[in-house]
Each structure stands twice: as structure tokens, then as C-alpha cells.
Amino acid sequence: MSLLTMNHLSFHYTGQPNLFERLNCSIQNGEILTILGPNGVGKSTLLKCLMGLLKPSAGTITLEGQALTKLSARQIAQIVAYVPQHVANPGSLTVTDYLVTSRTPYLSFAATPREADYQIVRDNLAKLSLTHLQDQPVNTLSGGQFQMVTIAKALVQQPKLIILDEPTAALDFGRQKQVIDLISALAADHYAVLHTTHNPNHAFMLGHKVGLFSPDGHFETGQADQLLTENRLKKIYGTDLKLIYEATLGRYVCELV
Ligand SMILES: Nc1ncnc2c1ncn2[C@@H]1O[C@H](COP(=O)(O)OP(=O)(O)OP(=O)(O)O)[C@@H](O)[C@H]1O
């Protein structure tokens, strides 16, 4: 059974044409789904549908075989963690206090976090090399530091599926590599990871499944090496580019020309 299944999914904003139509896709434990497509095509909208934040105009979404609409927010939060593209900065909370709020789906009503919850926070800060920020107020972090902290917050939730909307958008080269490596490590650890990116190289680096939006909203899935051809990428992004096989890396590299 797939962890997450999208079946004939369509969506349009009120008074607007469909952004996507009859979209089918699934993701299993241990799998990475990289979603690529031009600006404004509907990637973030699809992710919001998967989180139950927007209601599809047609089709169904199932989580572990159960209709998303039948699950409570708490049940969904125990399976899926979502990091949106724009996360509201929570103000003067410390990084530790901000992260421990992700333990809420596991706490009974009005209970305070336990030592074990703080340990999960410390473990995940260490995993992302963020321990030095643990006592810093979140509203004093740089854009890139805050983006890393939002990813740590998703891990603290201990979900089975992590959905990340452009997780590398604000990150320097080194941190981008760290996040791509983290996504690989999470998949090796049997998490499912669904993420969006504007960099086709991320899909080649990860080497898993890709979901590709065309400018007209058409959605195709396939393995990175097979789906992401030079012609397809040129059409998707409306620009000239080259795919070069880099033997030392053992993968394709996409370069703008
Ligand atoms: N609340 C809304 N009401 C109406 N239209 C919206 C709303 N939110 C987004 N849109 C429109 O829906 C389309 C898809 O937006 P979405 O944010 O899903 O695109 P995206 O593929 O994630 O884009 P980007 O790569 O630029 O982040 C865009 O044309 C956007 O202007």
C-alpha cells in the first residue's frame, strides 16, 4: 500500500480554470518525489491540497489507504510534516521552544512537553548541525538559518512523510548540499520525502522519482534520468540549456547556455 496516493486530482481557484487535472501520483516509504515545474504552475497549490489546506475540485487523496478527508488534523500530523514555502516567523521564541511545539500531535490536551520531547529536539538540531542556535530567538535568525530550523521542526514531528516546499530556496551552496544529502538520508531511513525545487540538478543528485509540471499544468512522473531530457527541460523552462553527463559524478548536470 502506498503511503500517499493522489487519484485523478483536479484543482482550480474560484473563478479560475483548472491548474491541474486528473493528476495521478503516489509515494511509498523510502521514496523521494521531486516536483519540478515553472513558476506559478501549481506546485505549492498541489502541496496544500495534500495537506488538506485546500479542497481539490475533483479526485481523492489517501494517506496509508485512508481518505485524507476522514482523518483528523492530529492523525494527519502524526503521518505528515509540511514545511511551506513561506513560514510565518513565530517571534521571540527560542529555537528549542519553537521546535518542541512540533511534539503537540503526541501530547494530550494541555500537557507540557517532556524531557523525551526536548531530547528529540536536541537530536534533530544536532543532525542538521544547528545546535549552536538552540537558545537563539527565532526572530533573530538569518533567512537561511530559519529555513534550516523549519526543516528541523518537521523532523521533530517524527512523521512518515515530509513535504518540503522549496527547502533550498534561501540556502547557500553548502547548506543546499546538506539539505539534498539529508533528503537522501531520510529516504534511506524509510521516510518518504516529497519536495519542490527549481533546480533540475537536485533531481539528478537524488536520482529518485520526479513529478514534472508542464506550463499547461500537464503532470508526468518518472525516474529522473528518463523523464528529464534536454528537450523536455527546455520546453518546461522556456530557455536553452544543456544536459551533460558528468562521469566523475555518475550523473547528468543541467547547465543554462
Ligand atoms: N489563493 C489564491 N487565489 C487565487 N489564485 C491563487 C491563489 N494562490 C495561488 N494562486 C495562483 O495559482 C497559481 C499557482 O500558484 P502556486 O503558488 O501553486 O504556483 P507554484 O508552481 O508553486 O509557483 P512558484 O514556483 O512560483 O512558487 C498562480 O497563478 C497563483 O497566482
From TrEMBL:
The signal peptide annotation in the UniProt record is none
Check the record and name the SMART domains matching this protein.
AAA (SM00382)
| Superkingdom as given in the UniProt entry | Bacteria
Q: Does the keyword Heme apply?
A: no
Q: Where is the ABC transporter domain?
A: 4-240
Which Pfam families does this one have? ABC_tran
Against InterPro entries, the record matches this protein to:
AAA+_ATPase (IPR003593), ABC_transporter-like_ATP-bd (IPR003439), ABC_transporter-like_CS (IPR017871), Metal_Ion_Import_ABC (IPR050153), P-loop_NTPase (IPR027417)
Which GO terms fall under molecular function for this chain's record?
A: ATP binding; ATP hydrolysis activity
Q: Which UniProt keywords apply?
A: ATP-binding, Nucleotide-binding, Transport
Report the PANTHER family cross-referenced here: METAL TRANSPORT SYSTEM ATP-BINDING PROTEIN TM_0124-RELATED, MOLYBDATE IMPORT ATP-BINDING PROTEIN MOLC
Family membership: Belongs to the ABC transporter superfamily.
Name of the protein in its database record: Iron ABC transporter ATP-binding protein
- Report the source organism: Secundilactobacillus mixtipabuli
